[in-house]
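Homework-ish question, so no full write-ups if that breaks the rules, but can someone show me the predicted structure for this set?
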Amino acid sequence: MLEVLKYGFMQRAFLAGIVIAVVCPAVGIFLVLRRMSMIGDTLSHVALAGVAGGMLGGIYPVYSALGVSILAALAIEKLSKEYEQYKELSIAIILSAGIGLATIFISLGNSNSAIFSYLFGSIGLVSWWDIRIIFVLGFIVLVSILFFYRSLFYIAFDEEAARLAGVPVKWVNLYFIILIAMTIAISMRTVGVLLVSSLMIIPVATGLQISRGFMQTFIYSILFGISSVLIGLFISFYVDLAPGGTIVVSSILILVIIILIKNIRRK
Amino acid sequence: MERLLDVKGVYFGYNKKYVLEDVNLTVFRGDFLGIVGPNGSAKSTLIKIILGILKPQRGTVVLLNSPIERFNQWDRIGYISQRVRNFNPAFPATVEEIVGANLYSQMGVFKFFNKEHKTKIKEALDVVNMSDYQDHLIGNLSGGEQQKVFIARTLISNPEIIFMDEPLVGVDVQSQEQFYGLMEKLNKELGITLVMVSHDIGVITDKANRVACVGNRKVCVHPSTDFNKEEHIRDVYGEDLSILHHKH
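A: Not a homework solution, just the prediction itself:
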């Protein structure tokens, strides 16, 4: 057995990592195709306010982050109706609210190192309790995505036609934004709040480079997600770096390599 | 004859100003109805009212024997909107995935294609002569080819009536001829009722059996054989117009 896997904390890091490596791109592909990439970033910053608030109030941070980001997701939906013509404004407002609250909560508390682990991710601090939550929520998100796969695909392609084909567009959209919040809540332990949205976006960007069709993009994105997380966790362990950084940099390197190979082949 | 669509006394407007007044329109099974009229004459608005996308201030719409407010048999109708081809051309979807999307209401819990779905997709693509393109990316096809794919997508749920809003905008002349050939096949051989908005008065009045003229807030329907193109054009564009017939 590989040396890294002898350590209990690394076993937990890999278990959590593989779950989020599958879930993040599976959700992210619909964010990218609907040009909603910024929502991932916004909700993760709001999740930080949840983490800091949870630490202050003595609540398990994954729960408080989940609660706060679901509320924020609903608020984005509501605000985007207020600003029909400026849809991106609702995202900017919630992003500001999230960072503002997070800043206040962080300065009220005095647990900077714990906040750091949620900002940049940590491999040493994933507990068995975390693993349980990650598996349960990860399972719910993945099953939901498979269940709504066809409707999400159709809405991303043409919302009006989807509605006429019988897709309950309004409800699917609402549930999807809650799924994004859940994905962020389970991912922040490993990749960190700042980099969750990268893991949702970059493997999909890589998948789009080589795939021919939607199903292919979906599968490739997940495979690239898994490779980024595995490579990133190994580097994090051996070089002692924050896993969020190593995972995202690995995913960027994979993207660059794929683009280079594609360009060389074309010539 | 069986009535598939009944529009009665419909008034529709924006800001208290009506763009359609007292519209009455009936479509019978087997019809090919062309809706013509100048730009901005509310042709697309009429289609949207018929499909329940817009709500009229007064009047009723009954589609397939059901008032449009309570209509839920979406698999019995097809709709090809004006902006159907305004999608992101880099969207990573194959022709098969796009056509299969309309099987939505017939798929099981996890909505993945099974053998029966794949056969249906193949059959729909056969009708529009596009079965060789099943694995192609939708964004890589020409305007005319994409149009055929969207028709196949509509056909897959075996609709009884298909509504089309300016389906030929941005489609080259050769593909337009093929399109009308296909419409004839759908209408005559497969017995599908067609309702098509078009600004190309010359062609649509030749192909359709009935024509609804929209203009000056009114809609009048007559058999296409009674339709006098030059008179209609003069009505719409004014008496000063003269039509030059010429060949290139």
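Now go work out the reasoning yourself. Hint: Chain A has one domain: 3-266.
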